[in-house]
Fold this protein.
Amino acid sequence: MKAAIMTAPYTIGIQEVEKPVLKAGEVLIRMKAAGICGGDVHYYDGTHPYAVYPQIYGHELSGVVVETGNGTTKLKVGDRVVVEPAVPCEKCYPCRIGKYNCCIKIDMIGGFRPGGFADYVAVPEAYAHPMPDGMTYEAGALCEPFTIGSQVVHRAGMHDGATVAILGVGPIGLTALILMKRLFNVKVFAVDVVPERLESARQFGADVLINPREQDTQKTIDEQTGGEGANIVIESAGLKLTMEQAIHIVSPGGRIVIVGLTNDQVGFPGILFTKKEVEILGSRNNAGRFPEVMNFLHENPDIVEAFISARMTFADIAEGLHIAKTKPNEVNKIILTFDEPN
């Protein structure tokens, strides 16, 4: 089969390799569509902490089952599926309590094991989800990032009437924005220093746009909420500055959800924990969000069309990664499509 092998930072090429040999409980999926993720870009530029070379990356995947391994019971050849790439051990404490997204031995398809930037990918049957009839493969490839947004919305305890501040409206912040605006009656403040991202947020329903380089974020939110603050603050920028700012923006009795990543030490004024009785929650990947996200994207094709920035063939993956790296503010999602193998 053909596979895009990343052999070093900024070095990727399509090579002929052996098809995966199925282990018990796995299915072989013929790839149909794959998204290029920010994580893939970090593998590409060498900044990802778990980068290994050579490797086949790609974890935002949809395709069709072409072979089933021993012990599989649910899927059959011809089934159209979306891949859930984070495979847990199912034994550790987080797995035992249903928070398998926090598994201490999580195995990532397109990270620790070969992914879907190839003609075929092997996936444990339990993590290949049957697609709704009529759902497009492109929509299927968008499911994984939208499950991250869905997890954020779930962790936030989103409810009608809430005021929400999203600090950072890159692709993950946008998925959370899209879901909350379609599913709840909420007022959303979108905060970002990149004008293109703010424009995307506006297109997807943000009520108030704030560029901190031009406006004082806390002052603007206070003015628009009668001094109350945002009932829910979502930090998706992954910056020490915005994480520390969240405690000042959130309303008393409110909730902060941090989905952004940073290695920096982050501090808050201790008095505000008690004074506001604020809840601060992390959000990682997803736990059980794929079925509802698949239905959401299938039922909202306008979102799928608007979220995709460009479509390219798998053969053009090197160009796609280059664009995603060099023009990040112009790209929500690049989708790769696959031809039938020879």
The longest helix spans residues 137-156. The two ends are 9 Å apart (CA to CA).
